[in-house]
Amino acid sequence: MADGGARSIITVADPAAGGKTAVGRLVARIGGNSGRIAICLTGGSSPTALYQLLATTEYRAQIPWDRVHWFVGDERLVPRKDPTHNMSMARQAFLDRCAPAANVHPIPTDTANLGDPDVSAALYENELTAFYGGDHLDPARPLFDLVLMGIGPDGHTASLFPGAPAIEETARWVVGVPKANVEPLVPRVTLTLPALASCREMLFEIAGRSKRVILTRLLAGENLPANRARSSGETVWLVDRAALPEDFRG
Ligand code: 6PG
């Protein structure tokens, strides 16, 4: 079923508590690397509390901004100014105020190629391989320190939708996704399972009653993208009580 190693599940009271736990883990990962750091962000609503905390005086002061680079695991093919643009949401929440512009690495969506996800994917793959310094992912040298993830109602994660070819990709780091399963129904660009797996930690945030049905299916072991996305290091699911299926409640 799953392609990677074991994962652990941490339950939290609510999204605010989830944000606190997530920011603590992010700061700890950054603290564990004295060199250049790479964080892969996610879209959707799940990281909202985390992103807001990163802009507060308390957490802002704990991050060596000049050494941290910010990427994104998937993007919707909309102009940068569109409110559903994943990296723009993160920019607005904290990056524009805190991070040097050169350390923010968005997936290009508003160039002449808007509408062709394969072109955006190829450009981003080039950016990632240049940053990494090679196109072969060495398990001893992960691409990212931390990869943030969310889970959609159909079990997708990043823009890896159930049954779509992107989920089976083993060579490319980034691919175009011509059709999304969920809103916004625009083409996407997504990192692939091997690129996402190349990290010290993959941290999922899963919150709200609406996630309970898909979480029940995933915890039963269904072969869905969110179950196949695993870090080569540590994989953690941060689940709030509202999302937790009855059987898993203490
Ligand atoms: C995207 C995402 C996607 C998201 C999940 C969960 O661009 O749509 O990166 O994978 O994380 O759909 O979304 P919510 O956090 O909004 O529930």
Structure explained in plain terms:
- Helix 1 (about 15-30) crosses helix 2.
- The chain has a 6-stranded parallel beta sheet. Strands 4-7-6 form a 3-stranded antiparallel beta sheet.
- The protein has helices spanning about 15-30, 50-55, 55-60, 85-100, 115-130, 195, 210-220, 225-230, and strands at about 5-10, 35-40, 70, 75, 145-150, 175, 190, 200-205, 235-240.
- About 30% of the residues lie in helices and about 20% in strands.
- It contains 8 helices and 9 strands.
- It is an alpha/beta fold and about 250 residues long.
- The structure holds 6-phosphogluconic acid.
**Shape summary:** globular
Bound molecules: 6-phosphogluconic acid
Main beta sheet strand tally, sense and closure: 6 strands, parallel
Please indicate the percent range of residues in DSSP E strands (runs of 2 or more).
Answer: 15-25%
Helix content: 25-40%
The average pLDDT is 93
Give the gist of this structure.
This protein has 250 residues and is an alpha/beta fold.
Keywords:
9 strands, alpha/beta, about 30% helix, 6-stranded parallel β-sheet
Describe the SSE topology.
Elements: E1 7-12, H1 15-31, E2 37-41, H2 48-54, H3 57-60, E3 68-72, E4 74-76, H4 86-98, H5 117-132, E5 144-149, E6 174-177, E7 188-191, H6 193-197, E8 199-206, H7 212-219, H8 225-228, E9 234-240
Parallel strand pairs: 1-9, 2-3, 2-5, 5-8, 8-9
Antiparallel strand pairs: 4-7, 6-7
Helix pairs in contact: 1-2
